[in-house]
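Cast an eye over this sequence plus tokens and walk me through the fold:

***
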Amino acid sequence: MKMLRKKTTDNAVVGVVTAILLIGLIVAIISLVQTMYIPKIMEQREADHMDKVAEQFTDLTSVIDGQAADRTKSMPIATSITLGSKELPYMLSIRAYGALEILDNARWINITYKSNGTTKPFRIGVITYSSTNGYFLNQNYTYEAGAMIVSQSEGNLMMIRPSFVFDYDSTKNPPLNITFDVVNIISVGRKTIASGFGTYPILTEFHDNSSNYPFTNVDTITITTPLSNAWSTFIRSSALYGTKFTHTDTGQVFTLKILEQPNIVNFKIITIQAQIGPGWVEQ
């Protein structure tokens, strides 16, 4: 009887030790997956989502540019923006969020005459998307004055250029003509913001061509924006840079200095109405 009891006890101990070892192995594998592979998987998911938002904002820019060119009223067009991405269903992970917002009168554009230093100010609105990622670098996308700009903590860069054209012909008077078509975004119906991780439509519609100014003998064009580096990089790419104009960039204010005199700046503001969410709601 004693021998049988001892044998039963040994079998029980072996079973307990085996179970503990199996549980420890499972915990070790789960911990390895959780600490090494899940962050990489989630980082790739969020990177893919950022690429998707970039594509959607490109579509939005194309729609707005088309509406600005066509100028047909009472035809709102919806463009979907995916704000965030979901977490993994069976492992511990963080969900990514985002915010889409219409900012009225968020930027200043000033045009200053050479002759007397008089400044003509204009205020314009923008559309912005900002991400709150758990694993991938946060990115913001902004539609500003006809340009699409992506920004990160390291800086910002223009992905789609605005309608900003330099035309120089020494046989003409004046030899330098600058055409700057600015898109001004205004909100409608107080539907100006959406946040979370779902997909939301932003509706845009041509409103009017509110301003069309041929300025003569312009000294500077100033854009007050936190994305001034994108404008700086864009302007430096012009073949006329350094001979017909230069610029300064403070990080918040971009100033284009026009060296060629006389000149004409054909400045136009095209106003686009926008609202976030399904269903067009009037003021």
Remarks:
- The first helix runs from residue 2 to 70.
